[in-house]
Write a structure and sequence with these properties.
single chain; alpha/beta; six-stranded mixed sheet; 46% helix; globular
C-alpha cells in the first residue's frame, strides 16, 4: 500500500481506513492532500479485499476545509495550479460519491466549509457528539463554493442550508442530525466502534447489490418518475447479469424456503442446505 504525506491508510477486516493526517493544521486540505486522496481512493476501490471505506481525521478535527494559505493565497499566484488543485478536489469527492463500495465518514471533530462538501457525498456520516459543523465562508466575504453549497443541498432542506450559508454560524452534532447533515452522533469514545459496527453490517450484504443500489440512488435523484422506473428496470437486468441470477436463484429461493427473513437479515448470511 502506498505511503502518503498527508494521509494514513490501513486495511482491517475488509474495511479500508483513510485518515486525513495534517493534525498540526486540524487536517485543513492542501493541494497535496487533494492529489493524494485521488490515489488513495483508487487503491481502496480497486482492492478486492476492501468491502467498505471509512474516512476520518487525525487529532481533534475532521477537516475545517481547504487550507486558506496553501490552497488559496499561494495558489492564486498561479491560476493554472489553482485550477489543478480545485479539479483534484472535485475529482476525489466524485470518486467518494460514486464508489462502488459503501463509504462512511467518521467525523471526529471540526467539520467546516470544504469538509462539509466531503461528508455530503459519503453514504453514511456518523459524528462525535463533540463535533462542530458550519459554513463560515460568509464571515470573510465569500460564499460556500466548490461544492460546499451543492453538497448540503443534496442532503438538507434549502432553508437549513441558507441558515448555515448566510449566518456562518456553527452547529453541534445534535443539530446537524436534525438538519440531516449527518445520520447520527455518538460519544467520541464510541465513534470508531460505531462506524466499524456499521461497516460489518454492510459487509454482510451482497457487494454487487450494494453497488447497483448506490448507482440507482444517485441517478434517480436526477430523473423524473417514469425515467427513474425505466432506469431501475435496466439496473435490475444489469444486476441479474453481474450476479449470474443469484438474487433469484438464492435470494428468492431461500426466502420461499423460509430460510431467512429479508426484513431481518441478508440471504448471503444463510448457508445452502446440504442434500
Amino acid at each position: 500500500m502506498t505511503t502518503y504525506d498527508t494521509l494514513l491508510l490501513r486495511i482491517e477486516e475488509e474495511i479500508g481506513f483513510i485518515t486525513l493526517n495534517r493534525p498540526e493544521k486540524r487536517n485543513a486540505m492542501n493541494p497535496r492532500l487533494h492529489k493524494e486522496m485521488n490515489g488513495a481512493l483508487d487503491e481502496m476501490i480497486e482492492d478486492d479485499s476492501v468491502r467498505v471505506i471509512i474516512l476520518t481525521g487525525s487529532g481533534d478535527s475532521f477537516s475545517p476545509g481547504n487550507d486558506l494559505k496553501e490552497f488559496f493565497a499561494e495558489q492564486m499566484e498561479s491560476p493554472l495550479q489553482f485550477r489543478r488543485a480545485s479539479l483534484n478536489f472535485a475529482h476525489w469527492r466524485e470518486k467518494l460519491r460514486t464508489s462502488p463500495k459503501p463509504t462512511i465518514c467518521a467525523v471526529n471533530g471540526w467539520c467546516l466549509g470544504g469538509g462539509i462538501s466531503v461528508i455530503c457525498v459519503a453514504d453514511f456520516v456518523i459524528a462525535a457528539e463533540e463535533a462542530k459543523f458550519g459554513l463560515p465562508e460568509i464571515n470573510f466575504g465569500m460564499f460556500p463554493a466548490g461544492g460546499a453549497t451543492k453538497g448540503p443541498l443534496e442532503v438538507m432542506s434549502p432553508r437549513d442550508v441558507l441558515d448555515l450559508a448566510l449566518t456562518g454560524r456553527n452547529i453541534d452534532a445534535a443539530e446537524a442530525a436534525r438538519m440531516r447533515l449527518i445520520n447520527r452522533s455518538v460519544p467520541r469514545a464510541k465513534l470508531m466502534d460505531e462506524c466499524i459496527a456499521l461497516a460489518r453490517e454492510l459487509k454482510k450484504k451482497d457487494p454487487i447489490a450494494l453497488m447497483i443500489a448506490k448507482e440507482a440512488f444517485w441517478r434517480d435523484k436526477e430523473l423524473n418518475y417514469p425515467a427513474a422506473v425505466d432506469f431501475e428496470a435496466g439496473k435490475v437486468r444489469e444486476l441479474n447479469f453481474l450476479q449470474k441470477g443469484q438474487w433469484v436463484s438464492d435470494g428468492i429461493r431461500k426466502f420461499l424456503d423460509k430460510q431467512y427473513k429479508p426484513s431481518e437479515s441478508s440471504f448471503t448470511q444463510v448457508p445452502d442446505k446440504k442434500d
